[in-house]
Design goal:
alpha/beta, Sufe protein. Chain: A, Flavocytochrome C3, Chain A, domain 1, 22 strands, 30% helix, binds flavin-adenine dinucleotide
């Protein structure tokens, strides 16, 4: 049975499929996103509306109640009523679950093994509280957070072969013009633009909601930048990105981002600000002035901020962009179907890609035919340990923790390759210096039982596991991880003392490493001081951060030779006194001594965010085969596409990852819709 999805059905479907998105007026054409009917304003506030929220979910033996208290940016207290659960199992897990929720500041916690039903209910109720407190801005559900695919599961055969699916197993067939796979940054930008341009659009997403809101949006030549008198030298930025990739990239794609990202962000700005009262696009221009002085690249990054006067800083507000893009899709008759994973692409032998086989929310196979094309926006493969280990053993062997998008298992890359697409030659990864494990552990592939140490990006003294300094600590996030890879076991310790607050202020770190807003009038930070202190307390309690009154005791707790470590600190402090780093050349204002007990330290490895190597595409985002020829009907954008980065992510060019994803998605949507 073949089913044409009419525009009316698209709109109807949205009520159930685009949870949390306010359906607002229709606007048509391939315009700039301005609504033709009045938008329903969405209240703008902080991340949370402070207060106490309660939710209930069914446990093993009883209804479990979770009560959470929030301030504007964090969960401050939790009460769990698990008293009706089996005493020795579910009820006993209560304390642990509470600690996990507070530590994670999220419902996405491990839970307690042996009490899985109780854990699932607690997570569900916690997600409900978070959703209430955030006014629906944060939608979390553990059902969407599968465990990483462990290396043992697949050995080295990360690619495998396309599954064979019998015709008799295909229960339904849908017809659309533009099919987009993945409802995140790339997919929703592509969907919104294609729908605006008049195409019938269907977006399918594996998870039950869209959830990868991003904060730092990198673009050049935006209206906001022009208004602020900022002119960016495109040639310089393009050359720097190519240099960083050792030119193992497609310069034309980078140039495309440099030329068109301003237009894309102006479009997004109108879409977001017209639908969210009090929200505006803000630019951050301080990069290089306060941090990483040796790596200054003047790209302006942007984010959406609200105007709540109670904020002396702006908490995370990236949710606005995905919600608003989803609204544009629905307003223009498109549909987003969640819980609908693509299984494989369908391609006529040697010819066109005609659509996909996916699974519907009941787990049945369905065929979706796309007359204009399929745009893959399935992200990278950071959740697929087998694929990471096979393609990038260096990254795998220094990663201790992940922040990556659940469900990003490389599905789009594999599906593309199964139908003949070419892939980047180099594995490329986004690693941050924020993973921590207990000091008696080495890299072991257990990404769940590890900590997120946000202060890891501060340029304090860092020593290898033998207690020796090994690098200028004042470098972009991942450089310290690369330097540490050359040291025993690929790990290192970050150490600091009781002056840490003053020192962090003095370091003036940049982008998402900031705790204080930038000195140049920037307003955005990832954590405020209270949130940071809460995070540290939790990490200490869980045995990640060690505290000691003497350097010798700290060395012992961190499993390092005390005599070497003490010598290292003496030398470091002497350089700090001199104000000249004769050993590694760190800037004088970042040479701050370790001399005020108690001392602190933790063992660090990489925090894996995403991967950035993918299917080869041209500047229409058409996927290419191994001969460099276009595969008709197939497109890719964002992290599942390639040609933009190679080896590592240049995080000192803040926001360029999602900036290129949104730009590629926007342009792909427009190109395919206009065919
Ligand atoms: C914690 C974190 C913070 C970040 N912050 C920034 C930032 O501030 N600035 C910046 O520039 N970059 C940032 N990045 C990187 C940035 O998010 C990515 O480079 C970019 O967003 C990728 O977008 P995408 O749409 O390609 O993929 P993703 O956002 O990863 O989305 C892919 C989507 O595809 C879905 N999917 C996967 N497989 C299937 C399937 N088989 N069928 C259907 N759907 C599927 C997934 O569920 C997911 O929703 C951050 C990354 C992380 C992890």
């Amino acid at each position: 049975m073949s089913k044409e999805i009419s525009r009316r059905e698209f709109v109807k479907g949205l009520a159930v499929s685009a949870a949390g998105v306010t359906a607002i007026g229709l606007f048509g054409g391939c315009g700039n996103g301005a609504p033709t009917t009045a938008a329903t304003p969405t209240a703008a506030a902080g991340l949370y509306t402070p207060g106490t929220y309660t939710a209930t979910a069914k446990g093993m033996e009883s209804d479990i109640t979770v009560t959470m208290t929030f301030d504007a940016s964090s969960i401050t207290d939790i009460t769990l009523d698990v008293s009706g659960e089996t005493e020795s199992i579910g009820a006993a897990a209560g304390d642990t679950l509470k600690k996990q929720l507070l530590a994670a500041q999220s419902s996405q916690i491990d839970g307690v093994s042996g009490a899985s039903v109780t854990s699932a209910a607690v997570k569900q109720a916690a997600a409900d509280c978070i959703s209430q407190a955030s006014g629906g801005k944060i939608v979390q559900n553990m059902a969407t957070t599968p465990a990483p695919i462990a290396p043992e599961a697949a050995g080295n055969d990360w690619l495998g072969t396309a599954p064979e699916i019998a015709e008799s197993d295909i229960k339904d067939t849908l017809e659309t013009e533009v099919l987009i796979v993945g409802a995140s940054n790339g997919g929703l930008a592509a969907g919104a633009r294609a729908a605006q341009c008049g195409a019938a659009v269907l977006v399918i997403e594996k998870a039950i909601s869209s959830m990868n809101e991003r904060e730092a949006l990198g673009a050049i030549g935006t209206r906001a930048a022009k208004a602020a008198g900022i002119e960016t030298d495109k040639n310089l930025v393009v050359a720097e990105l190519c240099r960083y990739a050792s030119h193992r990239c497609n310069e034309k794609l980078i140039r495309l981002w440099a030329d068109r990202s301003g237009e894309m962000l102006d479009w997004l700005e109108e879409i977001v600000t017209s639908r969210n009262d009090g929200v505006s696009l803000h630019i951050e221009t301080d990069i290089g002035k306060g941090g990483h002085d040796n790596y200054y690249i003047p790209v302006t990054w942007h984010n959406f901020q609200d105007s709540d006067p109670s904020h002396d800083y702006t908490p995370a507000t990236g949710a606005y962009s995905l919600r608003s893009l989803s609204a544009v899709i629905s307003e223009n008759g498109g549909e987003i179907r969640y819980s609908t994973p693509m299984v494989k692409l369908e391609r006529e032998t040697g010819g066109r890609v005609t659509g996909v086989i996916a699974k519907n929310e009941n787990g049945e196979y369905i065929r979706i035919n796309a007359s204009k094309g399929v745009i893959l926006c399935t992200g990278g493969y950071a959740g697929n340990q087998a694929m990471l280990k096979a393609l990038n053993p260096v990254a795998y062997n220094c990663t201790v923790q992940t922040d990556s998008t659940p469900n990003c298992f490389g599905d789009g890359i594999k599906a593309g390759m199964w139908v003949g697409a070419d892939k980047d030659p180099d594995a490329t990864v986004m690693l941050f210096d924020r993973g921590t494990i207990q000091p008696d552990r080495l890299v072991d592939g257990d990404w769940k039982n590890s900590g997120y140490f946000h202060l890891g990006s501060q340029p304090w003294l860092k020593v290898n596991l033998n207690g020796e300094r090994f690098c200028n600590e004042s470098v972009p996030y991942d450089f310290i991880l690369h330097a540490a890879y050359m040291e025993p076991h690929h790990l290192y310790n970050t150490v600091y003392d009781s002056n840490w607050v003053d020192q962090v202020k003095q370091f003036k770190q940049f982008a998402c490493a900031r705790i204080e807003p930038s000195p140049d009038g920037g307003k955005w930070i990832l954590f405020n001081w209270d949130a940071e202190k809460g995070l540290l307390a939790t990490l200490q309690q869980a045995g990640f951060i060690q505290q000691a009154d003497t350097l010798e005791e700290l060395a012992e707790k961190l499993n390092m030779p005390a005599d070497t470590f003490v010598e290292t600190v003496k030398r470091y402090n002497a350089l700090c006194d001199k104000g000249v780093d004769e050993d590694f050349g760190k800037e004088a204002y970042r040479l701050l001594p370790l001399n005020t007990p108690p001392y602190f330290g933790c063992r660090q490895g990489a925090n894996l965010l995403t991967t950035l190597d993918g299917l080869r595409i041209n500047t229409n985002m058409q996927v290419l085969d191994t001969e460099g020829k276009v595969i008709d009907g197939l497109y890719a954008a964002g992290d599942c596409s390639g040609g933009f980065f190679a080896h590592n992510y240049p995080e000192y060019i803040a926001g360029v990852a999602v900036g290129r994803t949104l730009t590629e998605g926007y342009l792909a949507g427009e190109y395919v819709a206009k065919l």
